[in-house]
Amino acid sequence: MAPPQTSQILADLVAKAPDGPVDLEWLLGNLDKRSFGLLLLLLGLLVIIPGIATIATLALLFPAVEMMLGRRAPSFPRVISKRQFDFKRFKRFTIAVSPMLQAIERISRPRWDARHDVIDRLVGLVVFLLAFSAGWPLPLVNVIPGMVVVLIAVAYLQEDGLLLAVAMAAALLCLLGLGFTLWASVSAVTEWMAH
């Protein structure tokens, strides 16, 4: 049986949200058994949104590490799980990206060949590196890693191995691009200090 559509799960979650701010504990309490995939999707979207990106980037590190360790469900330290954020901004953003998610879903279908535990650990490692790269204090450096995390999460939720391979390639390009930017920045600073 095909997994439920990611955009529909996201719409259902947004519909259940209270009017005021919410915290990660509320999100975890409303996720189903596929909570790692959904959590990566939600945090990937939050990483893109200005004003929420910093806490979301930090929060993204925890499920990534737990996936690498082979854990079955995500958890957070209380100081992060109780940190509230403006869900209205997130709701507006999810409505804006919903057509993009639906377009991906139309061309996506379950194509899952590898063992799930291997995929979990690989996804965890790549998401950890993307979250780490999104935390660098450079303008808009969070946007592309956040978008790649969203793509990885959709592929993971849809159990689409081909889409996951595309997402992993995008992640590699993203990480190489950031590495080159940092190398060029360090080289420029070193050269400036040498004069």
UniProtKB/TrEMBL annotation:
Membrane-spanning ranges: 36-62, 118-134, 162-186
Q: Name one Pfam family in it.
A: ExoD
Q: Which InterPro entries match?
A: ExoD
Give the UniProt keywords, A-Z: Membrane, Transmembrane, Transmembrane helix
Spell out the protein name for this chain.
Exopolysaccharide synthesis, ExoD
